[in-house]
Amino acid sequence: MTIIENIRLLKGAAVLAERKAVTPSLDLRRFNLFYGFNGSGKSTLSRTFAALQHGKKQDRLPEGCTFEIEMSDGTKFGYPKALTGLEKRVCVFNNDFIAENFRWETGMANPVFYIGADQAEAADQLKALEATFPTAQTKHEGEAKVFREREKAFNEFKRLLARTVSERLRQAARYEAPQFVADVDKLGASADDKLSDADLDAATATCARSEPPAKVKLVEVPVSSLLELIEAAVELAPKSVGSIVVEGLDVHPQMVPWVKQGHEYHVGHDLKSCLYCGKAITDERKKLLTEAFDDNFSKFITELNTAAHHAGDCVETLAIAKAAIPAAAQLSAEFQPPFETAASAFTAALDNVSPLLVTALKAFRERKGAPTSPVTMALPPAEEVRARIKLLDESCNAVNAICKQHADMVDGFNEHQKKAREAIRQHFVATSADDYAKHVSEISDATAKQVAAKAAVEKLEGDIVALRAKVQQHGAAADKINALVKSYLGHGELTIVAVAEGYELPHNGNLSDKLKTLCGRHNDLDRDRLNALERLSQVESHSDSLDDLIAQSSVTVEESRDANAALVHLMEVVDLAHLTDLRKYCKP
Known about the structure:
Blueprint: E1 4-11, H1 42-54, E2 66-71, E3 76-79, H2 95-101, E4 102-103, E5 108-109, H3 120-169, H4 177-187, H5 197-208, H6 223-236, H7 256-268, H8 283-292, H9 295-324, H10 336-369, H11 382-411, H12 413-431, H13 433-471, H14 475-489, E6 497-499, E7 502-504, H15 513-521, H16 527-541, H17 546-552, H18 557-574, H19 576-585
Helix pairs in contact: 3-4, 3-12, 3-13, 5-12, 6-9, 6-10, 9-10, 10-11, 16-18, 18-19
């Protein structure tokens, strides 16, 4: 077994000489004796070894003191470097140990443990458990660290997610992580609650509004009139109204409306001559024209004019309807995507129907210009025409339906905004569900492992305490200590007894046997003062210097005076001659 072989380096150790690497070795052996007068450095030297015992510098070592000891195998320990490693091999009994373990003012001492043969097995078990305890404690600390890290990650996850939700909600009260946890428990969102990016942005825009948007006007299209108009064009444009036997009109059919109107004017005003040419209008001419422009023809012209006028109105109406389609930005954000789709379909339907009306209007106008000349129109089949008009009707209704939804939202804006905020919260609960569940699972797993590791440590601690209590029965050591003290003092007057927290020096306010004998012989001795004298002598006997005496003594000034007075009184009564010599040599 290796032993301390040399104090290789020593500096700043009070009165002790400095030692360097080149200083000759002390060549220490298994047993060594250091002796010297008070103040020669014995206590300081013992404190360097006590530093190795405790693994830290002793408070009563001088400031700036450094040292290094060398083992027989060459290993070096010292201060300030490499102070640990010998804690279980070095034991120091010096004045510092006495001050720490013996309390003279209360007559108490810390326990010394004696291990008997019947405790050896428990000691082995204790040693084995103590060896496993650091590993168990390290595991517990590691599991606790993992738990803290996972808890921190989960808290950060909830905090960042809550911040994102709060930015979307745009509400006065800030949305915090606890509210998100409450939403997870309360809302129980599913995959169906996930919003598209467009819907999420629309809900966010709704939440951002401080007041509802304005309503938009519905789009009006006379769908039923459109089909009737085109059917009228199909009927009237090519319709034959018979021959008009008037010389010249067959060659110039465009003049028929003008001649008809002139004839009706001249007859209505009973004019005898033509206002245009000035010639007389004969009865035969009037009769010919009247027969040519009979009621059927007049009815045809009336229908043609009416249809032409109506066609012009419809063409204009469709143009107005196209221009009157609201801009998507005028609607609430959530309606904008579907409205853009509906408006696009409506515009396309208008573009499909408008040319039909333009064709019909053109045919009406051409036929009006030449009522007796049929006009051929290039129109799609009737089924296709009806399909186009039907599609126009449906697309117009789709646009107006969204406009009505927007209007309903405006009327109930507060409730709509509330639902938008709830939809946003459900969306984020749904989209984060997997990550949230993963965090919860990881924390649950870390918690279980931490609890198990903690339980293992607590069980080890309990087992160690129980075994230590079984091993550390200090009562058995009291007899051993009393025997050693008696052999050292040469008498058995100073003894100890075991108590729960250590040992007690039993005096119970009584004097030692010698003082009892003196008091028995001399009744005038003051017992209280003699008690103080005995306490002072006990403290002094364990003090190497005046500094130690002051540091360790708890005797009051009054008790010291009583002790001195008791000493003088004792010498006067018992040994007057000795007192006389003492006064002679100790004159002030």
